[in-house]
Design brief:
There is one protein chain. By secondary structure, the chain is mostly beta strands. Helices cover about 0% and strands about 50% of the residues. It has no helices and 11 strands. The protein has strands at about 5, 10, 20-25, 35-40, 45-50, 60, 70-75, 80-85, 90-100, 105, 110-115. The strands form 2 sheets. Strands 2, 4, 5, 6, 9, 10 and 11 form a 7-stranded mixed β-sheet that branches. The N and C termini lie far apart (about 40 Å).
Length: about 120
């Protein structure tokens, strides 16, 4: 079955950096666009970044543009999110997502930005 497993969440100070990973299995990872979403406490889940199947095109939410980079390694079925210049408002659970016949989500990884 389709599985998405995120990792890399941590407590980090404002201004710091962090890299998230998501390993996909149970589907042809290289054939599908992938996305990172996040959900902050008390807020709705929001789309953070998208990458095409081949990795050649990326899009970002305005709130993270210039600070986050989405990438993928189709040989290892891994999606990444490199986060820099982190702010308190980046605190959230980060989810990996793909849409095949339906929507598939990982369980999420918690990023806390605090001094």
């Amino acid at each position: 079955q389709v599985q998405l497993v995120e990792s890399g969440g941590a407590l980090v100070q404002p201004g710091g950096s962090l890299k998230l990973s998501c390993v996909g299995s149970g589907f042809t990872f290289s054939g599908w666009p992938m996305r990172w979403y996040r959900q902050a406490p008390g807020k709705e889940r929001e789309l953070v970044a998208t990458i095409t199947a081949g990795g050649g095109r990326t899009t970002y939410a305005d709130s993270v543009k210039g600070r986050f980079i989405i990438s993928r390694d189709n040989k290892s079925n891994t999606l990444y999110l490199q986060m820099g210049s982190l702010k308190a408002e980046d605190t959230a659970v980060y989810y990996c997502h793909t849409r095949l016949a339906g929507d598939y989500w990982g369980k999420g990884t918690l990023v806390t930005v605090s001094s």
